[in-house]
Write a structure and sequence with these properties.
By secondary structure, this protein is of the alpha+beta class. Strand 1 and strand 2 form a beta hairpin. The protein is built from 4 helices and 5 strands, in the order αββαβαββα. Bound molecules: tetrahydrodeoxyuridine. Tetrahydrodeoxyuridine binds next to helix 2.
Length: 140
């Protein structure tokens, strides 16, 4: 995260934790929250949304990206925070890495992903979670 956005860090982490409280995860009981920070300071959140047909469940990051894009966002993604219920920080699943890459690539950013646990935060760039990504430019 650039110095410009560093002061949003605590707010972003709190937003992810808050989003996990609204997760709909009655089947796994694994409540995940995600929060996306955009260049203008706006934060968009999501929690996982499960389904009685288990395989249809949506991850928190996917819900957050969908909300952001439904609101007109096309890039400008600076940072992402994700948090789960365990003792260790979780990282976004493979599908969510690809979903995050789409909105990041549209604005040419490489967002910092904050993997938020109860005691520690692991920071990694999306490009390190998803090297050699297939993205919008791959179709040119
Ligand atoms: N889950 C997420 O929401 N994000 C991830 O990155 C990993 C997994 C959700 C999916 C499912 O509802 C629950 O966590 C257990 O896998």
């Amino acid at each position: 995260m650039s110095d410009d956005h560093a002061h949003y860090r605590d707010e972003l982490i709190a937003a992810a934790r808050h989003a996990a409280e609204a997760a709909y995860a009655p089947y796994s009981d694994f409540h995940v929250g995600a929060a996306l920070l955009f260049e203008d300071g706006e934060i968009v959140t999501g929690g996982n949304v499960e389904n009685a047909s288990y395989g249809l469940s949506l991850c928190a990051e996917t819900v957050a990206v969908s909300k952001a894009m439904a609101g007109g966002r096309r890039g400008g993604l600076v940072a992402v925070a994700v948090t789960g219920p365990g003792e260790d920080p979780i990282t976004p699943c493979g599908r969510c890495r690809q979903i995050l890459n789409e909105i990041a690539a549209l604005g040419g950013t490489d967002p910092l992903v904050l993997c938020v646990g109860p005691h520690a935060v692991r920071e990694v760039h999306l490009s390190d979670l998803l090297p050699m990504a297939f993205g919008p430019a791959s179709l040119d």
